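User: Run a structure prediction on this.
Assistant: Running it now.
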Amino acid sequence: MKAVITVVGKDVVGILAKVSAICAEKQVNVIEVTQSILQDMFCMIMIVDVSNCSTSFPEFADTLTEYGNENALAIHVMNEDIFNSMHRI
């Protein structure tokens, strides 16, 4: 199963590294990443494979959301199928 992770917040050193590290800790494989800095805002979208995740999907999502809350970042984790359904016209 794939998932989409979005991260938005004030740009600081290490956001990509920390989110990737959390993925690695949970055995989640990062497939694709795109990121931009818009003025001083960091914006990132990751496609990840959660098939081998060492925790449940909700626990993985909660871990990232918690990291985001602690660091003034909006982090959302969504099943790819739900993401695609929400953005289909």
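DSSP finds three helices and four strands in the chain.
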